[in-house]
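In response to a reviewer's request, we include the raw inputs and outputs for one of the modeled complexes. The two entities were modeled together in a single run.
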Amino acid sequence: MTAVREPRRRLRGLPGLYAVLMRTAVQVQLQYRTANYAYMLGMIAEPVIYLVVWSSVARSQGGAVEGITVGEFAAYYIVWTLVRNMNIVFTPYGWEQRIRQGELSGMLVRPVHPIHYDLAYFAGWKFVVILLWLPIAAGLALIFRPTFDVSVLEAGVFLIAIWGAYLIRSMLLWVLGMVTFWTTRVSALYDMYFTAELLLSGRLLPLALLPAWAVTVADVLPFKYTFGYPIEVIAGDLSTRELFVGLGMQALWVGLGALLVAVVWRVGVRRYSAVGN
Amino acid sequence: MRRLSLGWTFLRVGALNELQYRVNFFLSLVQSVVAVGTALVVLGLVFSHTDSLGGWSSDELLVIMGVYVLMGGVIRSLVQPNMQQLMQDVQEGTLDYVLTKPEDAQLLVSVRRFGLWQAVDIVVGLLLVAVALVRLDDPVSVLAVLAFVVALLLGALDIYCFWLILTTSAFVVVRVDFLIELFDGMYQAGRWPVTIYPGWLRIGFTFLVPLAFAVTVPASALTGRLSGWLLLGAVAFTLGLVALTRWVWRQGLRRYAGASA
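The model returned the following structure tokens for the whole complex.
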């Protein structure tokens, strides 16, 4: 009897699935690095415009708006570019195709919940994105001269917070996308969701610049924890308490998001009848 | 004259095509209203912290926003659909069908498509401009309105030329769909007067991406900022750009190999 060499120990179960899917995503996306780059460069326009507008407001007000200086605005919108990229997840508009073309059927016969495929794939992609982002950030920093004051604790919290943001947005957009189980006239709903997100997340402007009542509204909604909070961890000056309260809120929204995904999926998938294949 | 009537025919056919899908009108309207609502909120937020931005008051900026929305409507209904079709034709080799027709190819690729419902934004933009002018309560002379219309036409022509030059790169690199994203991103900058941008960006938004001519210059005509010289400059720039576009288009066409058919 010949001794069969024990194959290299691999991760099993869900962690194994994640490892494989993330590696695949890295390899696939590295092939499309030019397209990825063009896309990322196109996205810079948005924060640069906000930055220019608020910088000129700050200058006309003697150097700062609500205590935010020109350099701090620069820091905010440069970190913005990374957080925005972490925020890109499976689009709710993609659900129409998944359902109409019967792509879900394939996912249904697999032994794990389909959200794991999206979560793992996009998470893998993020590593490529972060790599491509570094030179962009360096370029923007050279042009706009941000002021940073980052402690080790803040850097650590930031590393967790950007993944928290990723998880929350992934799950919320999944829930939004699943509305397609009931109706395909979703564009108006999505428009309103994304508008609310734009205004109340810190994507458009630092939340401190909103009127007081809107800040209160933003506090109880999840949007802030996917945009403004992670940015301010590094570009603002949050107290240690605020840093950890933020992480706690992120954990809460990840939990709530997971619950929503589970419930809506169970109800919604019953309405799915494979059209197509 | 024959060319004009050809363009008109295409426009009519395009409109008839779109009239089949009337629900899209309401979708376009909702989208337009949400977009304008958001922009107004942003304007309100900015002006809750300052009284003027780069020398423009909030009502004057409303004129800019109106022109921005209007020009966006022109792009999405007249320019972008044609350019997207051209990208697809180059990629799939179906441009052959255009080249074999007995009419100038540049003209044909520029008038084939028309997004009727996207033109909602043109009306919404005009309304915004009108509201802004009423709020400004500054009598606008006939001459200013005339200058506005001329500047608007020149601006639309500039944007068309810019788009066609971009799209012509499809003859070299084949896959250029990301250009749409890139252009949309840059067009956003036109919401604000180009004068607020730092030097190098301002030059870029004036001559590379002709946002200054498309939005800021027409809005200047209505807010008493436009000198005859500037308008003359816009005419000269547009003439130059049209000539350049023609040349680039010819060069690109030479590289077209007709992939499939």
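As requested, we also summarize the result in words. Chain A touches chain B through 32 residues (CB under 8 Å). DSSP finds eleven helices and two strands in chain A.
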